[in-house]
Specification:
single chain, 522 residues, alpha+beta, 7-stranded antiparallel beta sheet, 5-stranded antiparallel beta sheet, disordered C terminus
Length: 522
């Protein structure tokens, strides 16, 4: 079984862009699409440079060498971009995507991919996207932060996370596949995949057998969708030349910015003797054109089922004629500097170096001041900790003092209750004395002589003043009436005077200034 490719590459500027920054290459062993970016920073230069550099891969390779060959070509393309940027700083900021398919005659396929250009495979009525977009929204989708329904309207859907810019090393995604007769590959920029509905792309790939007519139809669909971006696509069919009798495409071609650039030319056909650019292209035999059922979603795994009768062949649309785009003038390079200007530039450079030194010294001073502030903050934090410890100790002391004051208050309250009890006893004694009752034997009272004797009252006489002829404790004092003078003694005084005995008692009411005489017991 001998496998080969029958392909076509087409590129269109779209309806809203002034220039075409897309580039493409299609050859017997290599298919590649690049979508340049950078606007005035020469996005078309980036895409065409990468495509012309990688076009050298269009040769027969062994199956084991395919991934290594793609990675080496990508590294070479990145180096070519770097050299352009070094030669002209105005081109810094340009970049490009790249999706490339490297083919062997045995049917081995390697796909290298960077950016958001895509590669699709249509096989047995099933439609697959075989590349992964290197975009911000794809990362968010894989992280579960957005849904597939939000991909088309997300504000960051065009933000790339990986691209060839000549400044950063980029490793492409490389996958290896086995091709089968009847497979159809589609490589395209996001000017097609981001505008044309996937269902419309699938229907076009399944309904139009000729690759060139299919590519033109896809561009027309994108333009009807508004054509906001450049549109580039390559359609390639895998054919078994021995079994089907179909003729593969032998002529390599460029498209887009790579074709418009005068510096770009297709690879030399000397690698395949006997082939010329004027070789006629034979139309492919017609084949059934399956149509998906009405109302069914885009068939990533749609089986064709029964094959309907082929529809009449549609006439191929004429390619649109448009005026050639004017080439943007190359930026003028500055003239070599004169000696005087060189000296002035050196002085300016020395001045800048001096300012840089001053800035560095100022930064060093700021760092020193910051270290001092940090040390002061550390000291303040330590002082604050000590203050908090002292506050806690003071609170503990106050709590203990409060508990001690409570104990003293309780003792004082108990003493006051005792004093009140003694005072109550004293008042009771006084009331009994006024009423003629016998006073309590536990209270020592003063007696005062009165003009009205009260013989009916027999009061106990203190032992030290009792009559010797009378029994102790039963002596009486005839002709005297007991009377308690108006005492205003506290309980403490009564206790003290009870302890000292009746000889030491004084009548507080009779003690006046200048009169220190006592009235003794009579």
């Amino acid at each position: 079984m001998t496998l080969a490719l029958r392909f076509a590459a087409r590129s269109d500027v779209g309806l809203r862009r002034e220039g075409n920054e897309d580039s493409a290459y299609a050859g017997p062993h290599l298919l590649a699409v690049a979508d340049g970016m950078g606007g005035h920073a020469a996005g078309e230069v980036a895409s065409s440079t990468v495509i012309t550099t990688i076009a050298d891969l269009d040769a027969e390779h062994s199956a084991d060498d395919l991934p290594v060959a793609i990675r080496g070509a990508v590294a070479s393309a990145s180096q070519a971009l770097r050299e352009l940027i070094v030669a002209d700083s105005a081109r810094q900021g340009m970049g490009t995507t790249l999706t490339a398919l490297l083919w062997t005659d045995e049917g081995h396929v390697a796909v290298g991919h960077i950016g958001d250009s895509r590669a699709y495979l249509l096989r047995d009525g099933q439609f697959y996207q075989i590349t992964r977009d290197h975009t911000k929204v794809q990362v968010l989708l894989e992280q579960g932060k957005i849904t597939e329904a939000e991909l088309e309207t997300h504000p960051q859907r065009s933000v790339l996370v990986r691209a060839l810019d000549g400044l950063h090393p980029v490793r492409p995604d490389v996958s290896v596949h086995e091709a089968l007769p009847g497979d159809r590959y589609l490589l395209c920029s996001d000017g097609l995949s981001g505008v044309a509905p996937e269902r419309a792309i699938f229907q076009t790939l399944t309904s139009i057998p000729d690759p060139e007519a299919t590519a033109l139809r896809l561009i027309e669909i994108a333009c009807r969708g508004g054509g906001p971006d450049n549109i580039t696509c390559i359609v390639a069919d895998v054919i078994d030349t021995a079994a089907s009798g179909e003729s593969p495409t032998r002529e390599a071609s460029f498209a887009g910015a790579a074709a418009d650039s005068g510096e770009v030319s297709p690879p030399d056909d000397s690698r395949d003797p006997g082939l010329t650019s004027a070789m006629p292209q034979y139309p492919a035999p017609s084949r059934p054109e399956p149509t998906p059922p009405e109302g069914e979603d885009v068939p990533r795994a749609w089986q064709a089922g029964r094959t309907p009768a082929p529809e009449p062949r549609r006439p191929e649309p004429e390619p649109r004629q448009r005026e050639p785009e004017p080439r943007r003038p190359e930026p003028e390079r500055p003239a070599p500097a004169q000696p005087a200007e060189t000296a002035r530039l050196r002085e300016a450079l020395e001045d800048l170096r001096g300012r840089l030194t001053e800035v560095r010294e100022h930064v060093s001073e700021l760092d020193t001041a910051r270290e001092r502030q940090d040390a002061r903050l550390s000291d303040l934090s330590g002082e604050g900790a000590e203050t908090r410890t002292e506050v806690r100790e003071l609170r503990t002391a106050l709590d203990q003092r409060g508990r001690g004051d409570g104990t003293l208050s309780m003792a004082l309250a108990a003493q006051m209750r005792e004093i009140k009890k003694l005072k109550a006893d004293f008042l009771t004694l006084r009331d009994n004395a006024d009423g003629g009752d016998t006073p309590s034997s536990g209270i020592v009272v003063r007696w005062r002589e009165t003009a009205e004797p009260s013989p009916a009252a027999d009061w106990p006489v203190p032992p030290d003043l009792a009559d010797d002829s009378a029994p102790p404790g039963s002596a009486t004092m005839a002709g005297y009436a007991p009377r308690v003078a108006g005492y205003s003694l506290t309980g403490a005084d009564l206790i003290r005077r009870r302890a000292t005995g009746p000889a030491q008692l004084r009548d507080d009411e009779n003690e006046t200034e200048g009169d220190s005489s006592d009235q003794p017991w009579d």
